[in-house]
Write a structure and sequence with these properties.
Layout: H1 4-15, E1 22-27, H2 29-32, H3 42-57, E2 61-66, H4 69-77, H5 86-110, E3 115-120, H6 122-126, H7 128-143, E4 147-152, H8 166-176, E5 181-186, H9 213-219, H10 231-243, E6 247-252, H11 258-263, E7 270-272
Parallel strand pairs: 1-2, 1-5, 2-4, 3-4, 5-6
Antiparallel strand pairs: 6-7
Helix pairs in contact: 4-5, 8-10
Amino acid sequence: MKTKKEVITLGTARENLKSARRIVIKVGTSTLAHADTGKLNLYRIEHLVREIADLHNAGKEIIFVSSGAIAAGMNKLGIKVKPQTIPENQALAAVGQGVLMHIYEKFFAEYGQTIGQILLTKENAADAHARENSGNSFRAILDMGAIPVVNENDAVGVDEIRIGDNDNLSAIVAAMIDAEVLIILSDIDGLYDGNPKVDKDARLIDEVTEINSEIERIAGGAGTKLGIGGMFTKIQAAKLATAHGVTMLIVNGSTNGNLRRALNGEKVGTIFPRRESS
């Protein structure tokens, strides 16, 4: 049972979302593509774009981190099974980025929005000078009233310069540009205390104020089948984001209106409140 202090903390963390102005939204391939065919889910993409466009119209500064380039490249080239080699995946990303940006350009334009693409590597975040320049690029796009669409530069990336996943990329971006909120859209409602796909008694965790070993265990642990590209990377992202003063949420991206509900302070998904500076 939550104490009165814990209830107040939860209310305050969610209430503060209402006034957030600079928001990073990350969407994964599982939300963008149909599970059965792997092809892009245009219905889901259009509804997501509409929500983002309306938030932008309401005065929010939105930075959109999108996965899906390799999946889009596979669809375009008629490849059914994802290749295992780096050059093949780089080629798919090169083809898919154009496909994905064309779709985003079309849908965002229909709702009166202008977008600009930014491709990042680890070098953009590791070096202070490069990080400052990257942050300035984001701010310039935002100042011009456009929406940055971000992905890792998979077309030329190698292991030495890759960030590795877009969950951590979105946290890096959020820290880089002093965002107030990071929302990671997933194919699950949030962080559960068990695996809801196999445990019918698994319960959604409303709030995580401390990312400890138990939270990491629940998330699947590094190197496990569950953790690769899944919940564990989201917990890593939460560590980074909250340490830089960014509140993070994991929200189901397959439900229309979840973005707005989350930013209205409603009880949606799992919230990781930002750590206060000491």
